[in-house]
Amino acid sequence: MKTREELGITLFAIALVLLQFAGYAFVPLLAGALLLLFSQHTFATCVKSVPLFAGFTAASLIVGLFMMMARPTETAPLARWIQFYFLTVMLMGVKDKSRLLTAVKYTVYAIFAADLMANILQVAGVKLPWVYLTIRPGELIPRFQGIKGNSLYSGSISFLALGFLINEMGLRKRLRYSVAFLMVVNLLLAGSLRYFISLALVLVLITFHLYRHRSYLLSGICATIGMVVVLTRWTMMSSESNYFRYKLWGHTIDRLNDSPLVGNGFLFQQVTDHTRFSVRTLATADVTESTILLFGLCFGLPLMFLFIASLFRTFSHYSNYKHYAPELGLFLGLALDLFWGGSIDNVLSLSVLLICMYLINQKHQTLSHP
């Protein structure tokens, strides 16, 4: 007979898989799983361990609700934001976050296996009905779109799988390297350079034990963010993706200047399969190509910088770890991705980001107040 916690963790993992492929129909299952896992005492303890992020969460919700009363808000973006706040709050109340992250790991492995198989079939010339391959200007091969028909999702699930596999020391070396090779190949097929940048920094983190050296780690993170911005600017005329990304960054910054203190409320990108890709149409659909800038656009610059501060506060706690743990690399990669892309609409990657953040900060609180 499974305990309440075991049942909640099992249902959470199942719900994550179903949500990836069936949409919001299985939100009640996810909600039920988190209610089984929720503890008020754990929630209060977790809030104390992430004061900056908790402050951002509460303040952004207040600002968003105030802006809803001041101007009309579309219904579609609200579902994404409700998901964001629900996961943010409920995952704080999960007592055994390490065990929950382990359950999510197996979910990631299962989805990755399906994604890899779909890409292999595409490479072999099999026509999948949900996939339409095109080659973007400046690129040599199409971006393969995996099990969901989305190359960004394929890149994301490959990065998550690699992030977990790196710490699988119980596997034989030959098997671990073979599986890692397949994950890198799938990442290549997805064609998303930003995940390679994140993966490279994670490997540097592990190789040189940067998690033990706070100043080196923070300097490396800042340098990486700056490097990506510069490289995006330099390559925008040879890469369609970087052209759109840099232009949309600039457009979003211009919009930020119109309402720098309180933003515009609950906005979210509204791209459909029929959206024509141009800077104008993407900007109209509220595409920012940066979740960080999206937070600024929605809630104003003060809250945007509060969110960034919560990320760097978490990075500063890496030095508490004597040995590498998967939450370090996963949080680093997913947090960096928020600067030059990222998204909060994917319940899987958002859950991993939040669980890792809470784990890292709770360890710091435990060491500070044993």
Automatic annotation (TrEMBL):
Protein name in the entry: Polymerase
Regions that span the bilayer: 12-38, 50-70, 76-94, 106-130, 150-167, 179-210, 216-236, 292-312, 338-360
Coiled-coil ranges per UniProt: none
Phylogenetic placement of the source organism: Bacteria, Pseudomonadati, Bacteroidota, Bacteroidia, Bacteroidales
Keywords, in A-Z order: Membrane, Transmembrane, Transmembrane helix
Record bears the keyword rRNA-binding: no
Highest taxon above the source species: Bacteria
Membrane in keyword set: yes
